[in-house]
Design brief:
CATH superfamily: Leucyl/phenylalanyl-tRNA-protein transferase, C-terminal domain
Number of helices: 7
Helix content: 25-40%
Order of helices and strands: EEHEEEHEHHEEEHEHEHE
Structural class: alpha+beta
Number of strands: 12
Largest sheet: 7 strands, mixed
CATH class: Alpha Beta
Number of domains: 1
Distance between the termini: 6 Å
Shape: globular
CATH architecture: 3-Layer(aba) Sandwich
CATH topology: Aminopeptidase
Length: 231
């Protein structure tokens, strides 16, 4: 049985209001913490955390890209070869969340930012029913997947990995399928920034103001049936 996410303790931190955000800077704020209440509040406001180094000191940064990477649910580009690959994997949801985050945070990956503190924080969020993984398996082995945060109709994708060709792309195809319900026209699949790779899959850029308006409508929705806490 699925139940709604468990409300975390309220955050003691106050994020700056949208009207004060620098229109020329993706970085909105510094500080706060990675407690579940802080994370849920931040995502609902259009923010996500990443570590930043300023003056040789690492700090916790909160970002809202000036142009946000978003994948329209009707805009995913599935090539003929990817469509064939979809048949080669088993899809599971939330069966190996910690393993997916660990693979995404492999220190051997370039530009890694998923520190042990981030891994613990999203693990806590997962156990409360707010963070989820979509996984690709082959022959009983985890070979790819993605994880992110679900707040109402928002799914904020954080990272993905693959150990076999197309395994992460297949997880993305599965995620889009999971979000396709009666609320699909208002659901929001956020991928933070558009990269050339993500653009090839259909990710577009939304100006910050448009993203925040879409987010306001999206977070009012119930979460997708696929996501929740077993109870």
């Amino acid at each position: 049985m699925r139940i709604v996410p468990i409300a975390p303790a309220p955050t003691p931190w106050a994020f700056p209001p949208h009207s004060t955000w620098d229109p020329d800077d993706d970085l909105v704020a510094l500080g706060a913490d990675l407690e579940p209440g802080t994370l849920v509040t931040a995502y609902a406001l259009g923010l996500f955390p990443m570590p930043v180094t300023l003056d040789t000191e690492e700090q916790l940064g909160w970002f809202s890209p000036i142009e946000r990477g978003v994948l329209p649910l009707d805009g995913l580009r599935v090539s003929r070869s990817l469509r064939r690959s979809v048949r080669d994997f088993e899809i599971r949801v939330d069966s190996a969340f910690d393993e997916v985050v660990a693979a995404c945070g492999d220190p051997g990956r370039p530009d890694g930012w998923i520190t042990p503190a981030f891994r613990r924080a999203y693990g806590r969020l997962h156990r409360l029913g707010w963070a989820h993984s979509v996984e690709t398996w082959r022959d009983g082995r985890l070979v790819g997947g993605l994880y992110g945060v679900s707040v109402g109709g928002l799914f904020a994708g954080e990272s993905m990995f693959h150990h076999e060709r197309d395994a992460s792309k297949v997880a993305l195809v599965a995620l889009v399928d999971l979000l396709q319900d009666q609320h699909a026209d208002r659901r929001l699949l956020d991928v933070q920034w558009q990269t050339p790779h993500l653009a090839s899959l259909g990710v577009v850029r939304l100006p910050r103001a448009e993203y925040l308006e879409a987010l306001r409508r999206s977070v009012e929705l119930p979460p997708p049936a696929a996501f929740g806490v077993d109870g």
